[in-house]
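Q: Predict the assembly, please.
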Amino acid sequence: MHFPESLPCETILDSIADGVFTVDLSWNITSFNRAASQITGITVQEALGQKCWEVFHSSLCDGDCALRSCLDLKRTISNKSIFIIRPDGQKVPISISAAPLHDLQGKLIGGVETFRDLTAMQLMRQKVDGQYTFEDIVGKSRALSKVFAILPQIAKSPSTVLLCGESGTGKELFARAIHNLSPRHSGPLITVNCGALPENLLESELFGYKAGAFTDAKKDKPGRFELAHGGSIFLDEIGDLPLSLQVKLLRVLQEKSFEPLGGVQSISTDVRIIAATNRNLAQMVQEEKFRQDLFYRLNVVQLELPPLRKRPEDIPLLINHFIQRLNILQDKDIQGVSEDVLNLLLRYKFPGNIRELENILEYTFILCSSGFIQLEHLPDNLHPSLKAADRPQPASPMTLEQIKCQAVLTALERNQGKKMATCRELQISKDTLRRMLQRCQ
Amino acid sequence: MIIALATYGARLASLFDTAPQLCLYLDSGHDCCLTAYFDLGQSSLGTRVSILRENEVQALICGGISGCTHRILSESGIQVIPWIRGQKEEVLAAWQKKDFSHLAMPGCQRHCRGRGRLEKQKNYMNKHRRQQ
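A: Predicted assembly structure:
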């Protein structure tokens, strides 16, 4: 394709949503478009003239470089899915294409690589499949650090793990982390919610069935234990497991085998069990609602996940994380939460933990179209003082100017006289605030 | 003390998470001697962390590293010096001088020092506690 010399290449490349960069034969970056800068987190000035692997930080840079392959093999490479890591530690999934570059005489002068950010697609897939990963565990608190400190050792051992924590504390995320860090990471991780299914369905789900075992059993169906062979099985809400099934589970733990429904032969299993509960199993044992022998078999390694109220320093990080995710999923540009909202959320006890925080932010995204999330965007149960019936009504009709004055003065009072905080809340410049205050006085 | 370099041939690998080799050095104070070499291939994160812990590595010098990997290693007591580039010899020389400023990857200077947005969050939380 002939490209007219008069066309402004830089402007054209900067208008493309995909990252594009070129290298010379010494792998020095010779051009780097705006999208490349946005996706990698490296500015154009910082990138130009540097070795491509020192800027791109991709999973192929050390021994499997796509650019090197296409230059060596003299062919283009298209739509290869890899990841890069940004300087802030964020892993970004991308799809790359690469091609050799030749001058007008046909001499090889370097290569060009284009890449597309697949974060939005990955988030959509996560939302549909619920397949969140270790990277989704957000937090730097001491409470969480204690868990991280022992996670590799727990993962490496073959022992059964019992994850204890309130609802919404991320037990499934940690189960995935343990599986991914373990020697079984290349095997499957099968999840079963023991509280979600009735007893008769749960048994067939866990252990499978043979054809003819019951009326609708027309062919053999493998159970979750069989599907998890060589990998791990995550038994969520283990406290809801019926007593009859607790016996069968105990046998799996002791003898590493089970019989499917309607089966006569035992099937051996090589599965690592990770169980989770938000109930007090020790107390359930006392009340004879949970088998003591099973409890001791499950409780080989217990990991207590802290509730969100015990890690308030993680709240700003989690807010940032969820807002970024929601912005991508809903194609919005919410900047964050106002200081009022942050202060309120820091004081809130979050009985539903992280899941509740995520739901609150998802609710605010319905009411907040852009800028910062304000108090009025929050659910009423969080901020009852903002209910319409409680708001003071003016004694007489006000002009637009008077309404603006009242809004500015109220906001200033709410921010304890801090003008910059007032500007951020009202989304006006400091000059506009100064002029409005002059008019109001 | 034992230090580790995540490498690709003669240079530091671009990423720790996919680095093909791990070189362990004994820092006697005067110089650094190679004591072990691991061919990591496609090893998982768990394997990489295990190798570092089992060999009592106290510091890891590497290129890029994902946030969660950095966290796991730090919580294991390993000092992580990330976002460094260069040939093995110059990296070891920088380690002896405890100065990596000239070897920081482009655009990564503040992340080498372990600061950035999380430092801002900590500062915000400290300010919030003082106000309370």
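The longest helix of chain A spans residues 315-330. Chain A touches chain B through 46 residues (CB under 8 Å).
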